[in-house]
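User: I've been trying to design a sequence by hand for this structure and keep getting stuck. Would you show me what you'd pick, starting by listing the structure so we're on the same page?

Assistant: Good idea, let's start from the same input. This is the structure you sent:
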């Protein structure tokens, strides 16, 4: 057993048990959790102490005395059908009145919009009235059978995370925490003065864990206290009249409510961002970085470390953004739901160390009689471990209520195993660059800013319609390839990086991830064709390079590169014929692997000289296409599984014309993976399952066979 690099939660009146778990797990740091306080006796231990620090919530004395500083957002009413006379719209009907209250402090006629959603026209302010007692907007002369909405500015009077925790853990009469806005008069001074007093009053605290800074990701509840809209990357909660006015001074134009409401889509990260929205994101990131730096500098002046939690109020402090490094944080901690979220945290530049909170949280929804938390813990660890082998975190930990976890001895034993195995991995490879057979770029609207975050919901949750695409990122999180993220604007301005072997474009038509109408850009299409033809690979998954409406006779604008296009009904009168199956390509990419394309795209047909590799139910599912000296490979979808991770890796090597290099470090069994660390002379062979596995493996090009017990990592020395 080794010690260190592990943070655990604790609580009041739990000293002896906490001390025993510290010894068993080798923990070296203790943290509090939302709704808990640390036992004073813990301070007698030689440990590092983290304190959760809420900047913009948990200060209700200030918030109640300054309700005009409450955080705000723009919301849209339900769509209401016009009547023959006046139309009344109860715009709060679908919102939870314990979380949302309309802002009547600022003139609705100036800051709200009523829109005819049938025509898209804005209804002139003189044509509607607001009843502030009943929260109703009345339109004097609505058009019959036209739909109308109200875009209104609202106060968020209950912090969304505290609300979620309150409802999940049944906190009963606990006072609701009101979030307030650092931009409002007096709020910044309060935040700074409170921290100034707090720091010397808590000398035992070594790490101030900001949870997080100022603005919560967009999370709004409906009238039944259920989640109505949630976007982990959403900037909806950053809005205020002060922000709108400051933005106009900087950018020279005024934002509308529609720039935020977005016809009800709320600028979801799936939407190709407008230039107005990109300008606003940049504006908020600059402001948050400036304000956060003030607080971080205060923490450093007090001789303490400043840590940011990657969640809750983290909007504007995106760690891959251009201003993040200026904050000066020591570390970032976040929840690890899978390999994607592991890499999201571990790859963050500009901090001294990274830390991951593993699942399950010690909450009663998991730790209750009749449930086995080891099942989730094991799945979480084995999933995240793939990514750790590519880029380790510096520390790990758990959150929640330690009293609950202590009631499950098998879980306690499994955490011991996780902690020891993590420390062993870290000691071997934390400063060693792993072998990467290829350099792969992920191309979408967000690029580097949202590294590892396409399709993300937070904590590894997934959407039914996108799990077929998210699997691509999950597969890459632990694959022996070097991954980078590119935006369309990046390559249009700077060209395609010279060292890339393959570019992946993955997602549904019209989304920010596939690209939508950016593919009408002649410069982009020409550049990509030229790059592939020069000898590179292009892999499209789902509806890559697709415009919502076919453009110049194509749905996929790089159909000629991929060798496939999509029929949406316009070309049904055109005959389509099967093309030959490329047996060699099928043998290399697919082999004997079972296939799963998930909710993959439909209506696909090969074009030109493409060769079909796989066809199911009369629908083309996998296509290869030689293009000049390069190659295109198309897959209809790729939900994550070990088999599909293996399939994607083989497809990437095929697209890059580097089939002969696959067996440098490789395992034939998809449940087994090989990672090599040439500068350290180490090779790690992983069994990524909780079952016995055997496999032929290639180590530095030489074949051998392995027999692995459940969850085993076998370390080998590189043969000289």
């Amino acid at each position: 057993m080794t010690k260190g690099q592990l943070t655990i939660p604790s609580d009041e009146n739990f000293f002896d048990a906490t001390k025993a778990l510290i010894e068993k797990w080798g923990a070296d740091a203790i943290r509090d959790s939302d709704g808990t306080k640390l036992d004073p006796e813990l301070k007698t231990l030689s440990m590092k102490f983290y304190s959760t620090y809420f900047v913009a919530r948990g200060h209700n004395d200030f918030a109640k005395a300054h309700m005009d500083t409450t955080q705000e957002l723009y919301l849209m009413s339900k769509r209401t059908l016009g009547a023959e006379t006046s139309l009344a719209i109860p715009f709060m009907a679908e919102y939870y009145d314990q979380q949302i209250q309309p802002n009547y402090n600022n003139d609705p006629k100036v800051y709200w919009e009523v829109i005819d959603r049938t025509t898209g026209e804005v209804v002139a302010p003189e044509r509607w009235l607001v009843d502030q007692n009943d929260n109703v907007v009345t339109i004097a002369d609505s058009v019959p059978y036209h739909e109308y909405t109200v875009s209104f500015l609202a106060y968020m009077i209950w912090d969304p995370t505290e609300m979620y925790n309150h409802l999940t853990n049944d906190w009963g009469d606990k006072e609701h925490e009101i979030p307030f806005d650092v931009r409002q008069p007096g709020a910044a001074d309060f935040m700074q003065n409170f921290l100034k007093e707090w720091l010397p009053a808590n000398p035992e605290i070594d790490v101030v864990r900001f949870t997080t800074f100022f603005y919560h990701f967009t999370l709004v509840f409906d009238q039944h206290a259920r989640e109505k809209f949630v976007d982990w990357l959403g900037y909806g909660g950053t809005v205020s009249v002060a922000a709108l006015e400051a933005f106009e001074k900087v950018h020279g134009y005024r934002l509308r409510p529609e720039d935020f409401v977005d016809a009800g889509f709320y600028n979801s990260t799936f939407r190709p961002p407008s230039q107005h929205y990109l300008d606003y994101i940049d504006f908020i990131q600059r402001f948050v970085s400036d304000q956060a730096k003030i607080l971080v500098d205060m923490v450093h002046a007090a001789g303490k470390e400043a840590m940011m939690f990657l969640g809750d109020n983290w909007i504007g402090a995106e760690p891959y953004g251009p201003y993040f490094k200026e904050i000066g944080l020591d570390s970032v901690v976040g929840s690890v739901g899978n390999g994607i979220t592991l890499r999201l945290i571990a790859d963050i530049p500009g901090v001294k160390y990274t830390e991951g909170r593993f699942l399950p949280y010690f909450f009663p929804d998991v730790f209750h009689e009749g449930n086995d938390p080891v099942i989730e813990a094991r799945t979480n660890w084995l999933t995240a471990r793939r990514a750790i082998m590519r880029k380790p975190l510096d520390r790990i930990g758990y959150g929640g209520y330690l009293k609950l976890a202590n009631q499950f001895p098998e879980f306690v034993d499994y955490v011991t195993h996780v902690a020891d195995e993590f420390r062993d991995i870290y000691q071997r490879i934390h400063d060693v660059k792993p072998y990467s057979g290829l350099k792969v770029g992920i191309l979408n609207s967000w690029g580097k800013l949202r590294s590892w975050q396409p399709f993300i919901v937070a904590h590894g949750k997934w959407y039914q319609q996108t799990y077929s695409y998210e699997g691509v990122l999950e597969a890459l999180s632990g694959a022996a390839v070097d991954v980078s993220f590119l935006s369309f604007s990046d390559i249009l301005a700077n060209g395609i990086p010279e060292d890339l072997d393959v570019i992946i474009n993955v997602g549904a038509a019209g989304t920010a991830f596939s690209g939508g109408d950016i593919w009408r850009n002649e410069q982009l299409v020409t550049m990509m064709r030229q790059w592939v033809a020069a000898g590179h690979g292009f892999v499209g998954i789902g509806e890559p390079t697709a415009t919502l409406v076919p453009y110049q006779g194509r749905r996929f604008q790089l159909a000629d590169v991929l060798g496939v296009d999509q029929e949406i009904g316009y070309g049904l009168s055109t005959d389509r014929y099967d093309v030959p199956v490329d047996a060699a390509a099928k043998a290399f990419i697919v082999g004997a692997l079972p296939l799963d394309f998930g909710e993959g795209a439909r209506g696909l047909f090969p074009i030109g000289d493409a060769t079909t590799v796989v066809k199911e139910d009369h629908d083309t599912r996998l296509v290869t296409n030689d293009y000049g000296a390069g190659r295109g490979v198309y897959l209809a979808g790729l939900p994550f599984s070990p088999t599909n991770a293996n399939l994607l890796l083989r497809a990437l090597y095929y697209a890059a014309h580097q089939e002969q290099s696959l067996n440098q470090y490789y395992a034939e069994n998809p449940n087994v993976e090989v990672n090599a660390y040439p500068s350290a002379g180490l090779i790690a062979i992983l069994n990524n399952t909780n079952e016995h596995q055997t496999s032929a493996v290639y180590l530095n090009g030489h074949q051998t066979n392995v027999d692995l017990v459940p969850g085993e990592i076998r370390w080998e020395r590189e043969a000289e």
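That's my pick for every position. To get oriented when you compare it with your attempt: The first strand starts at residue 6 and ends at 9. The radius of gyration is 27 Å.
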